[in-house]
Each structure stands twice: as structure tokens, then as C-alpha cells.
Write a structure and sequence with these properties.
This protein is an alpha/beta fold. It is 34% helix and 23% strand. Helix 4 packs across helix 5.
Length: 325
């Protein structure tokens, strides 16, 4: 089965008035069809920049220094603006983090949904209206005809999020990029959104690139996980091996900071220190100042690259954890 997305050695910097922010530093991964690939990491590690780069929506201050993003045999970084416009919405969709801010406040949500259908699907206004009501119904919104006439400020955060998902999924894209799709929602609404997302994309045979900082969401959704730190992927693995036997010290520290229902007496271990300044990244491993397993090699050599520790488990670390640790 052909892969859906391949990102190779992606470097993206933001040029500020004084210095350069190194947002992405050699990111590489492969996204398979019908796979939920979760990118997890602390705020500011480059997850949202990666999503915007794939969609071709980087701001003018951003510069892609190197890398390729292959989708359907085409390098998206070399694609023309007209080609990217054809892909967005139809083949690749993005769900933004803040749905109420992403929706147009002066247009009814139904009109916004119909515009996407007519612009990318070539449907008539009547057909677009029917498709819009049907997808809103699939997303669990009551009385879709009434919802179509509402403005974003008339709807709750959860309802706006479902409208955004409807806009992203209505044309059955092959790749859905969801950037923190449940941030700011209560636990019940979060579970409902994630369940609908997983079910709809399974039925549509689409792949999901899910960007989050919530390891609970990762455990619930992911087939494959990529752990990001300071603009780099430090570990990639299927979800079960990653949770059972994390090999990078950063992944292990993230999991140690989470409460466990199967071990209520477990002491939570906070991850001490702060992420490095992306304005002044060191040549060595960026996790070095916070790492409990650092060696002299880590202080003397350049940052490690992703290397396989098993056929489908890759780690960027000079001294990875042993499976027995």
C-alpha cells in the first residue's frame, strides 16, 4: 500500500528582527494510509509549524531551508500555488486549534461549509446545502438545518469544533491534519470529538496526523507516535511499545509525569528544567541539560540522529534506555 505522506529532513526557520528561530530541525517521518500518527511534545516544540508547512500556510517570516514533503508523488514544497489550492480541502484538510477563532465571525457556519463544498467539490448550491446538512448530522449536531443559519458566536466551543471537523471532512480528504482539535473542551466533549474523528476517518479510509501535547489523547487515538522536542523528532514507534518501553529519556520523563489509574500510589515525577531557547540551540542534544542519562559523549558530540533500536522503533539518543529499565 502506497504511503500517504513522507516528510524528509525538514528544516524551517523564522526570521526575526534580531535573530533566527530554529522551529524545525531535520524532521522526518512517514504517514501510512488509514493510520493515526500522533505528534506529541511540549508547547513550542514545532508541532504547529509542521502542520502549516505541510499545508503551505507558513507566514512570510518563515523560511524552509531544506527538506521534502511528498504527497501523491508531488513535493508540496515545490508545488505551485494553484496546485496547493486544489489539494487543500479536497485531498488534505486542516483542523485548527481554536475553532471559534478560525471560523468567519460574520458568516453563518452553513455558508462557510457550502463555500468549501462548491469551491473544491464543484457541487451546485442545492447539492452543497444537502451535503452540508448531512455532514453536520454525521458530526452529531442536532437540527442541522437550524445550525446552518447560526453564526460562530451563537454556538458553544464544542459545537464550533464539530463544525470545523465537518468542514475538514466533508470532501473526504485522504489526509486530515488535526492541530490540538480538543483543546479547551471538557473531558466528555473531548472524548466525543475524538471518537467521531476516529470513526469517520476509518470509514473514509483517511489518514490522520494528530498534533497534541496530551499523552492521554495519544494513548486513545494513535497507531504510530512521534515525540518532538525542540524542533526535532526524538522517538518514533507504534503506540503500545512506546508506552510500555520508551527508549528516549524525554519520552520516559513525559510518561513518568502522568497519573496512572492502575497504580494510584505511583509518585508523579515532574520533568524539571525548561526546553532550550530556539533562538540559540546547542550543537549537542537539546535535551542534554534535563537528561538524567547524559554521558560525556552527549556533551562532546553533535546531536544524535534517529536510529532504529528495533524494526519499527527509532530513537535519537546516544544513551537510550534499555528495555529492562
Amino acid at each position: 500500500m502506497a504511503e500517504t505522506l513522507r516528510v524528509e529532513n525538514l528544516h524551517v526557520h523564522y526570521e526575526t528582527a534580531a535573530r533566527t528561530v530554529k522551529a524545525l530541525n531535520g524532521v522526518s517521518f512517514v504517514q501510512q494510509p488509514e493510520e493515526v500518527f500522533c505528534l506529541v511534545g511540549e508547547s513550542g516544540c514545532g508541532k504547529s509549524t509542521l502542520a502549516l508547512t505541510i499545508m503551505g500556510l507558513l507566514p512570510a517570516t518563515a523560511k524552509v531551508l531544506a527538506g521534502r514533503i511528498m504527497f501523491d508523488g508531488v513535493d508540496l514544497l515545490q508545488a505551485s500555488p494553484s496546485h496547493m489550492r486544489r489539494l487543500r480541502g479536497r485531498d488534505i484538510s486542516l483542523v485548527f486549534q481554536d475553532a471559534q477563532a478560525a471560523l468567519d465571525p460574520v458568516q453563518p457556519v452553513g455558508r462557510q461549509l457550502e463555500e468549501v463544498i462548491m469551491a473544491h467539490g464543484g457541487a451546485s448550491p442545492r447539492a452543497a446545502n444537502g451535503m452540508a446538512q448531512e455532514i453536520l448530522k454525521e458530526m452529531g449536531l442536532p437540527d442541522p438545518k437550524r445550525i446552518m443559519g447560526q453564526y460562530p458566536f451563537n454556538l458553544s466551543g464544542g459545537m464550533c469544533q464539530r463544525v470545523m471537523l465537518a468542514i475538514a471532512l466533508v470532501l473526504r480528504p485522504r489526509l486530515l491534519i488535526a492541530d490540538e482539535p480538543t483543546s479547551g473542551l471538557d473531558v466528555t466533549m473531548q472524548a466525543e470529538i475524538l471518537l467521531r474523528l476516529k470513526r469517520l476517518c476509518r470509514d473514509l479510509h483517511s489518514a490522520i496526523l494528530l498534533i497534541t501535547h496530551d499523552m492521554g489523547v495519544v494513548a486513545h487515538m494513535a497507531n504510530q507516535v512521534g515525540v518532538m522536542y525542540a524542533g526535532s523528532l526524538v522517538e518514533t514507534a507504534p503506540a503500545v511499545p512506546l508506552f510500555k518501553q520508551p527508549r528516549h529519556p524525554y519520552t520516559w520523563a513525559l510518561l513518568q509525569s502522568l497519573p496512572r489509574l492502575d497504580n494510584v500510589n505511583k509518585r508523579l515525577e515532574p520533568l524539571r528544567g525548561s526546553p532550550p531557547d530556539l533562538l540559540d540551540l546547542p550543537e549537542q542534544c537539546p535535551f542534554l541539560p534535563r537528561c538524567a542519562k547524559a554521558l560525556n559523549r552527549c556533551r562532546l558530540e553533535r546531536r544524535p540522529l534517529l536510529q532504529p533500536v528495533s524494526p519499527d522503533h527509532w530513537v535519537a539518543c546516544h544513551n537510550p534506555l534499555h528495555p529492562s529499565e
